[in-house]
């Protein structure tokens, strides 16, 4: 088996980062045909197509994304070698993680904990809307996406949603509102509430709960961002309908208290991937740690 030609790899890396063969050829002072031959030689050596063309743009295939990760690692290591001969270095692997912009930061930190601080891991974190993140996952620009609702899957977009976390939803507020364990109906009748927006699964659960209780609560705010709900609760704007993990630090410090768990209400968290021939191996320890954590809580 012939050795890998690193000139081919260097040219592939340049095209992959530019996403345009013509632009890369001009920058490297090469003809397009010469650059195409270099890429084709690398694809033949690896046994996989590395790009697919859509119009005038080139997009990485799954094998191309993996090859780019390795190419970046290889050439970064070479740069480090030039800088210092004492640096032995370790192979680093990248993982690209997307999270719903409104998702609890505390939950995200708990999910990432197994790889936090690892010197052999490069974490690239992105946030956005559900549609943006799933689009990036489908195009192989993300390895895993964190959401609070499982996406629809079909034969065209085979998303795999792993249920990684579940927590009760509670009434959270400043100690001025009373003591923990105060009658739920009384709390909801006397004090305004900070709610997630109507699109949230938690909101629909809350609407069903107050309907059963025969209560029409005063709504202080409707917010689609858990971080903003946390801030409003800290400012005393009302009782927030939140999973306690969102305000973990405030509960520990005593600046906020959990008045009561809302019966039948839960917030679910999912790690969404796609079926790939070459899944990122860093995803497995994250999912295994999440499953172990769930087992410990049950």
What general outline do the C-alpha atoms trace? elongated
Number of strands: 10
Strand order of the largest sheet: 4-3-5-10-6-9-7-8
Mean pLDDT equals 84
Number of helices: 11
Q: Which structural class should the secondary elements be placed in? A: alpha/beta
**Helicity, as a percent range:** 40-55%
Low-pLDDT sequence parts: 84-90
N- to C-terminal distance: 52 Å
Gyration radius, rounded:
25 Å
- Major β-sheet, in short? 8 strands, mixed
Succession of helices and strands: HHHEEHEHEHEEHEHEHEHEH
Strand content: 15-25%
SSE topology sketch:
Layout: H1 6-18, H2 21-28, H3 32-46, E1 51-54, E2 57-60, H4 62-83, E3 93-100, H5 105-112, E4 121-128, H6 130-138, E5 144-147, E6 159-173, H7 184-190, E7 193-196, H8 201-213, E8 219-223, H9 226-234, E9 239-242, H10 248-253, E10 257-274, H11 283-297
Parallel strand pairs: 3-4, 3-5, 7-8, 7-9
Antiparallel strand pairs: 1-2, 5-10, 6-9, 6-10
Helix pairs in contact: 1-3, 1-4
């Amino acid at each position: 088996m012939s050795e890998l030609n690193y000139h081919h790899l260097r040219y592939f890396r340049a095209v992959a980062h530019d996403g345009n063969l013509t632009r890369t050829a001009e920058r490297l002072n090469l003809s397009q045909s010469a650059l195409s031959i270099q890429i084709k030689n690398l694809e033949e050596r690896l046994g996989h197509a590395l790009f697919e063309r859509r119009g005038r743009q080139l997009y990485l295939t799954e094998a191309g994304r993996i090859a780019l990760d390795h190419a970046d690692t290889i050439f970064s290591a070479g740069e480090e070698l030039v800088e210092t001969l004492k640096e032995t270095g370790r192979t680093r692997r990248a993982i690209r993680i997307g999270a719903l912009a409104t998702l609890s930061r505390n939950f995200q930190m708990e999910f990432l904990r197994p790889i936090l601080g690892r010197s052999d891991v490069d974490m690239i974190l992105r946030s956005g809307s559900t549609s943006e993140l799933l689009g990036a996952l489908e195009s192989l620009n993300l390895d895993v996406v964190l959401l609070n609702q499982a996406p629809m899957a079909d034969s065209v977009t085979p998303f795999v949603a792993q249920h990684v976390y579940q927590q009760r939803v509670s009434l959270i507020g400043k100690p001025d509102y009373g003591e923990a364990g105060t009658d739920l109906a009384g709390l909801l009748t006397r004090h305004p509430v900070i709610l997630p927006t109507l699109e949230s699964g938690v909101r629909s659960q809350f609407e069903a709960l107050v309907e059963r209780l025969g209560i029409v609560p005063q709504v202080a705010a409707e917010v689609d961002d858990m971080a903003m709900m946390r801030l409003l609760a800290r400012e005393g704007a009302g009782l927030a309908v939140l999973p306690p993990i969102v305000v973990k630090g405030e509960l520990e410090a005593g600046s906020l208290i959990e008045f009561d768990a809302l019966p039948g209400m839960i917030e679910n968290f999912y790690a969404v991937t796609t079926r790939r021939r070459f899944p990122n191996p860093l995803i497995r320890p994250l999912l295994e740690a999440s499953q172990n954590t769930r087992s410990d809580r049950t």
